[in-house]
Design brief:
CATH topology of the domain at 28-57 and 378-403 and 490-662: Collagenase (Catalytic Domain)
Distance between the termini: 39 Å
Structural class: alpha+beta
Strand content: 5-15%
Radius of gyration: 26 Å
CATH superfamily of the domain at 28-57 and 378-403 and 490-662: Collagenase (Catalytic Domain)
Length: 667
């Protein structure tokens, strides 16, 4: 059996002949010794999991985000080719080719050492006041480096027709606030690795008294962590929206000096959304109580950690050594693959334009649109049949459902990158220039209507998303490939694959957070009071159920953190199944390779979450990611869905069997 699911040669809407011939796709990896009702994820994937090998330079293998692994090999081939050509300045080929070349010139990068950040370190040394600290923070923010202040430009929660400034908590070096306070063994190891990382950076920059400096930096970060909201607390939309007048903030927080800060940021605004007010209140106090000398050390650490990956080899190695403790990744990726990631990060739409032109099958776009439309119709039917929702709320729900905008494949209007000159021999300068351009691109949206042509993921990425403030769903070209979608496959496979993903994203419009936005993207109640209480009670059942699921050892899922994604998984399966039953095959019982259409639908769902990861990565994932691990994205929804029980004859006594009254149904 193949250790990797896919090869670069079989990418993008293409699968190997043995898998697509006559639509008879074999579900290799099925373990018949495991009953579907005991553990459906392992029933479908156990043999594959036992034989799949995670490459030394990866943290996992399989579907979803790990499908980006072979995808990136394809992108590498594109970049190697265009980097050897000569193109007109400013064209996508020239920009991505020369940017890739600049990052591949490791001889020059290593010769420079940490010279590129010396001016920043020298400027920090010259800081003589709190106002100069904030001036430096603003300048770095404009260059893409977030330190004490984090700013975004996106729609006003209460008026989605205009973009405003949103400021959120930030300032930490560890992945999340809890890493500063948890005392379990894995967290302690990460804390030690982080301190070791900072020590290496200070040594590389020739800054003495490393141990004392590190404790100072860590102490400041821990103080900032104490005033952070938890990830679960940040799910509360209304509590994390606080529209305040700049004039009032300027009076209350003189050390931050909001009017001057906005001026330095080039942002004009009378009011701001301070998403976590306590953070900025306490930051203002800390700016007055922590010594200037200590703040300078903090800023130096921030600069070095931010730029380490684009400096010389010793900095890159130090960064990797720290991250491998978090992820478990054994070996650093090749330089070429690191550059693929960075080209996608900084010039993703230029690269995406080349990718789509070469590899996208336009027929897929219409087929996916048909699928989305079918799932909308199925969702409408399910809304009509709800026994817990009143007719008045149903009308509003259906209005929102049919207002959802659909983006498929690639943008109709491509993002441009201004008049930036990308040079083959200036990697650090290229990165900074593109970061500054990106800041100005975002800032230009301020006080304007949202650009509904804009995408927030690159076309080559294997992902999909729902944007509540724009009420839109997006399916980039990257996900329109096996095992999610295949033009040659039967409906059972496609509805269980991409159909499940579409249903998942549609359900996000009605999950615990999405349900608080109306059809126009405003945070506005459109429910009756009684209906909303019933809805919250049902989402609480999802929270309670997922809290019981174990991932590693005694590590449980956080039901409150993952409730939105879990609700979307449950809703996505149900909606995709209803849409499938509208098709000719869905109404038939003809078997293919021994499986009924319904069985193939559920088998396809289990296969799209066929993922294997390192334990270190999974442990960090569970603490920080709002998605459940793959096993529970399959077993969680199936144990709630009666058609699954019927398809596989799940009986009392099976480990994942739930009595009818315990099967949670929202949509």
């Amino acid at each position: 059996m193949k250790t990797l699911l896919y090869s670069a040669l079989s990418l993008f809407l293409l699968v190997s002949c043995e898998e697509t011939e006559n639509n008879k796709i074999d579900f290799d990896g099925i373990d018949l010794s495991i009953k579907p009702g005991d553990n459906f994820f392992l029933h479908v994937n156990k043999n594959w999991l036992d034989s799949a090998v995670i490459a030394d330079d990866e943290v996992g293998v399989g579907s979803y985000s790990f499908l980006n692994i072979p995808q990136k090999k394809l992108l590498e081939n594109i970049l190697v080719e265009v980097s050897k050509g000569t193109y007109k300045k400013g064209t996508p080929d020239q920009m991505v080719g020369d940017f890739y070349s600049s990052g591949m010139d490791t001889v020059r990068i290593n010769e420079l050492g940490f010279e590129p950040i010396k001016p920043l370190l020298n400027r920090i040394n010259s800081i003589k006041s709190t106002s100069e600290i904030m001036s430096f923070v603003a300048d770095e923010l404009k260059a893409g480096n977030t330190s004490l202040v984090s700013m975004g430009v996106f729609p006003d929660n209460e008026n989605s027709k205009v973009n405003m400034l949103h400021f959120s908590q930030t300032g930490l070096g560890l992945p999340d606030r809890d890493y500063y306070f948890n005392t379990d063994e894995s967290t302690i190891e990460i804390q030690k690795a982080y301190k070791s990382y900072l020590t290496k950076l200070f040594k590389l920059a020739g800054i003495t008294k490393e141990e004392k400096n590190i404790e100072t930096v860590y102490s400041i970060e821990k103080k900032l962590a104490q005033i952070h909201k938890t990830r679960t607390e940040r799910r509360d939309i209304k509590a994390n929206y606080n529209k305040l007048a700049v004039s009032d903030l300027a009076k209350r927080q003189p050390n931050i000096a909001w009017s001057t800060l906005l001026q330095n940021l080039g942002a004009e605004a009378d009011s701001l959304d301070i998403m976590q007010p306590l953070y900025y209140e306490k930051l203002n106090a800390l700016l007055g109580s922590i010594s200037l000398t200590d703040w300078k050390l903090y800023l130096k650490a921030n600069v070095m950690t931010h730029y380490a990956d684009i400096l010389s080899k010793p900095f890159e190695i130090a960064s990797f050594d720290y991250n491998k403790v978090i992820t478990g990744q054994d070996v650093q990726k090749t330089r070429a693959q690191l550059m693929v990631q960075n080209v996608d990060l900084y010039l993703g739409y230029a690269l995406g334009k080349i990718y789509v032109k070469r590899y996208f099958n336009e027929v897929a776009k219409k087929r996916i649109l048909d699928l989305v439309n079918n799932l909308q119709k199925a969702f409408e039917v399910r809304i009509n049949e709800l026994d817990w929702m009143s007719d008045s709320t149903k009308i509003k729900a259906k209005e929102k459902l049919y207002t959802i905008a659909k983006k498929i494949g690639y943008p109709d209007v491509w993002r441009e990158y201004g008049d930036i000159e990308i040079k083959k021999d200036s990697y650090f300068e290229n990165v900074v220039a593109l970061s500054k351009e990106d800041y100005q691109f975002e800032l230009a949206k301020l006080n304007k209507a949202p650009n509904r042509d804009e995408w927030h993921t690159t076309p080559s990425t294997v992902t999909a998303y729902y944007d509540a403030s724009l009420n839109e769903i997006v399916f980039p070209a990257g996900i329109l490939q096996f095992p999610y979608f295949d033009l040659n496959a039967d409906d059972a496979l496609n509805y269980g694959g991409i159909g499940m993903v579409i249903g998942h994203e549609l359900t996000h419009a009605f999950d615990d957070r999405g349900a608080q936005y109306d059809k126009d993207g405003n945070v506005k109640n459109w429910w009756t009071a009684e209906d909303y209480e019933k809805f919250k009670a049902k989402t609480q059942l999802i929270i309670n159920r997922y809290n019981t699921f174990t991932v590693l050892d005694s590590l449980h899922l956080n039901g409150a953190l993952t409730v939105g994604e879990n609700a979307a998984d449950n809703g996505g399966m149900a909606i995709a199944y209803s849409a499938f039953k509208l098709t000719e095959q869905g109404q038939d019982t003809t078997k293919i390779n021994g499986y009924t259409p319904d069985q193939r639908f559920f088998l396809s769902i289990a296969r799209i979450w066929r993922v294997k990861t390192r334990d270190e990565y999974l442990r960090n994932y569970v603490k920080n990611d709002p998605h459940s691990p793959p096993i529970w994205r399959v077993n969680g929804p199936t144990m709630n869905f009666t058609p699954f029980y019927d398809a596989f004859e799940v009986k009392p006594g099976d480990k994942n069997y739930k009595p009818l009254e315990e099967r949670i149904k929202i949509w």
